[in-house]
Specification:
The chain has about 160 residues and is α+β, with helices and mostly antiparallel strands. The protein has helices at about 45-70, 120-135, 150-165; strands at about 5, 5, 15, 30, 35, 80-85, 95, 100-105, 140-145, 150. The protein has a single domain (about 5-165), classed as Elastase, domain 1 (Roll), CATH 3.10.170. It has 3 helices and 10 strands; from the N terminus they run βββββαβββαββα.
């Protein structure tokens, strides 16, 4: 028997492995499987641990949106959320990618962020960007060369993600 890190009780929400590549096509991510249905070791040395942490955050956030607002998924169409962990090399960020319709999680930059960015508040924040993308179509936040964000639609998008994440 083989188990897949996919949740049929939440519209087949699934997390995959980008394996250090900057993949923005969910279908190209590697599926997490297990013969024992035991996932991760709780250490960053185990690649599956980040996936399980991301999956947990996604399910908690989807449950919040369903219980609080009656939403059935990010687009309210009974379609599961999708995520990829281990995105890129030394990526100290996580983000919503509207092209792939998924959340992408870096493993940290090794300096400021030493662990994968898969904690619940980060997942809530990024999944909320997906909800905003599906409902309000606010422009993504613009960022200047120094990393400063500007633009009202982007600021609203970011603040909503901060509130719900």
């Amino acid at each position: 028997t083989s188990f897949l890190l996919k949740d049929p009780t939440r519209w087949n929400t699934e997390t995959r492995d980008a394996k250090g590549a900057e993949l923005e096509a969910f279908s190209r991510g590697t599926k997490f499987t297990s013969t024992t249905n035991k996932w991760g070791t709780g250490t960053i040395a185990n690649r599956t641990t980040a996936a399980v942490d991301a999956q947990y955050g996604i399910t908690q956030t989807l449950d919040f949106y369903k219980k609080t607002f009656g939403r059935k998924g990010i687009k309210n169409n009974s379609t599961g959320a999708r995520a990829m962990v281990h995105f890129g090399r030394k990526v100290g960020n996580a983000f919503w990618d509207s092209t792939c319709g998924c959340m992408l999680y870096g493993d940290g930059d090794g300096a400021m962020f030493k662990k994968p960015l898969v904690v619940l508040d980060v997942t809530g924040h990024e999944l909320t960007h997906g909800v905003v993308d599906a409902t309000a179509a606010l422009e993504p936040t613009r960022v200047d060369a120094r990393g400063n964000q500007y633009g009202e639609p982007g600021a609203l998008n970011e603040s909503l993600a901060d509130i719900f994440g």
